[in-house]
Amino acid sequence: MASLVGGLNTRLIGRKILYYPVLASTMDAARKAALDGEAGGTVIVAGEQTQGRGRLSRSWVSPRGSIALSIILYPEVIYLPYLVMITALAASAAIEGAASLPTAVKWPNDLIVGGKKVGGILIENGWDGGVLRFSIVGIGINVDMEVAAYPEIAEIAASLRSGGRDMRAELIRQLLAEFDRLYLMLPAEGHAIFEAWRGRLTTLGKAVTVVSGDQAIEGTAEAVDESGALRVRKPDGSSITVLAGDVSLREK
Ligand code: BT5
Question: Per residue in 51-60, pLDDT tens?
Fold first, then answer.
């Protein structure tokens, strides 16, 4: 992991990086570490995950070579809406920097290259009564993954290609550096972060289907607000506001 830490000159994020060749999920390892009082900004990296997960108990394909990491944070509650925005901005900038590929963000948490999903973001918070104890920010990015080998995602996913160099380390370095920079701008610069995130979204103006449980609602993605929620205008003129944790979105 020395090559990962080398050159990383951050103030908070990645001051400590713990690398595990195999984990069930970096989310669980990070949660346990947070409960044990691990320092804020510590990053848990897995060489591969055997039970990587997405939102709503979906599974995340996370073989060797891909990026799977979780960042332990102890944020103020008012920071929470910005975490997914910061993560999306940092990850997309890092993909553009390390892989030289234009990267978009599909609301709420998909990293998109060439119209396909190359990465995803998962944020889990630890609450104690009404008190926020910690947040775990998880990021998965496909590197040198043979997407066709995984039928369940073959149609929707894509992978970055390292071309023999250590792209994974470079990408993680850039991601953590940018995350550090943005996170330390909170709370004062929250609005600027929101504006930058909104500018990266491919979703706005598109026809979408919002899927929640067995319900599917069609409409046009109209706007996002600073809480991160998406407003969808339905054909009858009424609108609904949906929160990131709860729904899937299909863009047409
Ligand atoms: C996400 O969930 O996109 C969040 C993924 C977060 C993964 C990271 S890896 C490090 C940390 N540790 C973990 O255990 N998780 C985090 P969601 O929006 O629910 O999307 C999940 C859906 O994406 C699945 O149902 C599949 O359709 C698809 N999918 C699964 N694996 C994929 C992959 N490797 N690439 C692209 N799409 C994938």
Answer: 999 998 899 9
Here the tokens at position 210 are 């919002």
Provide the pLDDT for residue 251: 78
Q: Other C-beta atoms within 10 Å of 157: how many?
A: 18
Determine phi and psi for 221, rounding to 5 degrees. -70, 115
Q: How far is CA 45 from CA 4, 30, 84, 169, 221, in A?
A: 10, 9, 19, 11, 34
Residues with Cβ within 8 Å of 115's Cβ and at least 6 positions away in sequence, in order, are none
Q: How far is CA 74 from the centre of its chain?
A: 17
CA of 59 to the centre of ligand 1 (A): 6
Ligand 1 center to 119 CA (angstroms): 7
For residue 107, how far is its CA from the centre of ligand 1 (angstroms)? 14
142 lines ligand 1 (CB under 6 A): yes
| Average pLDDT rounded to a whole number, residues 196-215 | 91
DSSP assignment of 191-230: HHHHHHHHHHBS-TTSEEEEEETTEEEEEEEEEE-TTS-E
Contact 131, 71 (CB under 8 A): no
